[in-house]
Amino acid sequence: MLAALRSLTLVWPGLPWLWLRGSMAGLVLATAFAITLDVAIVTTFIWPGLVELPLTIGCWTAAGLVWLASTVSALAAFPAALASPSPAEVDPLFIRARDAYLARDWLTAEIRLREVLDASPTDGEAQLLLGTLLRRVGRLEEARAALEKLAASDSGIPWRQAIAAEQRRVAAARKDGSGSSATLSLADEPPAEATAREESGPNRAAA
Q1: Cβ distance 88 to 53 under 8 Å?
Q2: Whose CB has fewer CB within 10 Å in the chain, the N or C terminal residue?
Q3: What is the pLDDT of residue 28?
Q4: If you ran DSSP here, which 8-state letter would residue 44 be given?
Q5: Under 8 Å between Cβ of 43 and 51
């Protein structure tokens, strides 16, 4: 069933990469096709005298060629489904990352979190903890980008309050102009991801 739904994205040029991967190139292609098709429809059925017939034919030809080329291209390199490992595979990695984080072993925690995200790219809890870690070590731009990406994805829905809290902390640290001092001053805060887990997320940390 899911495979059939994914295949429906082939109907619109660029949609496989836009919908399944959030690709900017997919967005550009989908938008260009929409504009071309709209112009062809308007000049054919709504205002047929608006432009010369050759231009209308050209619009339909361009729309058809774009659709054909993008469909063939997508069929040849269709985005694979994102990995969905079982909790038994991912949870031990996350627990080790969390333990390193709580011990303030930032390097080990980051390595373990990236291992989790390599195995499960849609793990919102791991993404949030990584964003928090980046903020604590003073890598504020990376933290901001990671939190914005999470907030814009479905993976961030269970953690929206904690994401917003972290984004405020990052903004405050950037305003102060010193990531390292912000890290030290916030070192005794309860981790944002633990608060979010208590509010709405799975009780993974207790494993």
Answers
A1: no
A2: N
A3: 86
A4: I
A5: yes
CA count, 13 A, side-chain hemisphere, 187: 12
pLDDT value, residue 78: 65
Residue 101: predicted pLDDT = 96
Beta-carbon contacts of 67 under 8 Å, excluding residues fewer than 6 positions away, are 13, 33
Amino acid (1-letter code) at residue 62: A
The arrangement of secondary structure in 87-199, i.e. its CATH architecture, is Alpha Horseshoe (1.25)
pTM (2 d.p.): 0.55
| pLDDT tens per residue, range 28-47 | 888 988 998 998 899 898 88
Phi, psi torsion values for 178, nearest 5 degrees = -145, 100
Domain boundaries defined on the chain: 2-76, 87-199
43 and 56 Cβ atoms separated by less than 8 Å: yes
What's the CA gap between 116 and 122, in Å, rounded? Answer: 10
Task: Tell whether the model's pLDDT for residue 183 goes beyond 50.
Answer: no
Q: What dihedral do alpha carbons 86, 90, 92, 95 form, nearest 10°?
A: -130
Question: Which amino acid, residue 81?
Answer: A
Report d(CA 86, CA 89) in Å as an integer: 5
Q: Which residue has the tokens 């993976």?
A: 155
Q: What is the mean predicted confidence (pLDDT) over 109-123?
A: 92
Q: Give the angle subtended at the CA of 42 by the CAs of 36 and 46, to the nearest 5°.
A: 170
Orientation of helix 124-136 relative to helix 160-176, angle to 10°: 20
